[in-house]
Hints:
By secondary structure, this protein is α/β, with parallel strands linked by helices.
Amino acid sequence: MRILGIETSCDETAVAVVEDGTEILSNVVASQVDIHARYGGIVPEVASRQHMLTILPVLERAMSQAKTGWQDVDAIAITFGPGLSGSLLVGVNVAKASALAQGLPLIGVNHLEAHIYANWLDDNQPLFPCLCLIVSGGHSDLVLMTGHGEYEKIGRTRDDAAGEAFDKGARILGLGYPGGPAIEAVAKNVVPSLSLPRAWLRSTDDFSFSGLKTALLHLVEGRGSLDVAWVADAAASFQQAIVEVLATKAIVAAERLGVRQILLSGGVAANTALAGYFASNCPLPFLIPRPGLCTDNAAMVAACAYYRLQAGMVDGYGLDVVPSLSDVVPSLSLS
Ligand code: KG4
Ligand code: ZN
C-alpha cells in the first residue's frame, strides 16, 4: 500500500511517498525558514504564496525520488488542520485535485496525529498503550494512545507551547529564528547556572511556559548589555527549565497511567537536551523520531493515513481545511 502524503500546514512545503505506513520511499521538505527568519517569525501571506510556488516541484521530486508514478499510488493523504488557513488551502486543493484526477481515495489527516505517527517510521515499532508527548510550535499535549486512532487527552499547555517558548526566549536573547535550534546551538556544552522558575502545576498534567518566558525577559532587562557567555548560560538555563518540566511531567503521567512506552513528537522532540534528559531519567522505554521526522514533514502524514485507511476512514472530495482543529481527539469524529 503506497500513500502519497502532502503537508503544508505552516511554513514547510512537504511531499512524501510511504509504503505500508512505515517505509519511507521519499520525503521531500522545502523549508521557508530563511524567508521568514528576516521577519523574526512566520508571515502567513508569505507562507501561502511560497507554498503555491513550491508545491508542484516538490510533488514531482518526491514522486521521482520514490520512482513512483500515479499508477503506483494507492491513496493521497493531506493535512487539513490545525495550521494557517492559507497554507492548508494550498495543500488540500492540490491533494483534492490529484485525488479527483487520478480517482484515488483522499484521507484528511490531523497534523498533531501525524506528528505522533512519525514514531512508526522507524524499525522500533511503538507498543500500546503509550503516552504521547507532542511538543511543537503550536502545541504541547500529553495524549494517552490505546490503539490506532484511539486517544484520550491527558494534559496540554495552558499558555505558550514549548516550541513557542523556545521561539520567544530566543527572540528575548537576540538569537535567530526558529528559536529552538538557535537556543540549542548556543547552549551546547554550557552548564546552566541561572535560576529560572518551573511551573509544575502538580495537581494536573498541564504545562505552562509563559512565566518562564517573563522571568527570562526580566533577567535580560535587568542586565542592560548582554555578553556572549551570559547569553549562552541564559539559553542553557532556559532550555533546561523547559526540558525538565516536559520530561518530568510526561514520566510522572506515564507511570501513573501504566503505559508501556512514551512517544515523543513535534519539532521540540528534536532537541538533544530533551533526548538526553529522557535517556538519563526515564525508567520506561521511550521513542523519539529522528530529527527530520520530528519537525514538519509529509512522511508522518502518509504514515498516519495508512492506519486511517486500514480502519476504513476515507474523506470525500469536499474535504475542507480546519485551521483551528484543536487536538487529536476530535479528529476521530470527522471522517
Ligand atoms: O513541529 P514543528 O516543526 O512545527 C509545528 O507544528 O509547530 O515545530 C516547530 C517548533 C518551533 O517552535 C521550533 O523552535 C521548535 O519546534 N524546534 C525546536 C528544535 N527544533 C525545532 N525546539 C527545541 N530544540 C530543537 N532542536
Ligand atoms: Zn508540526
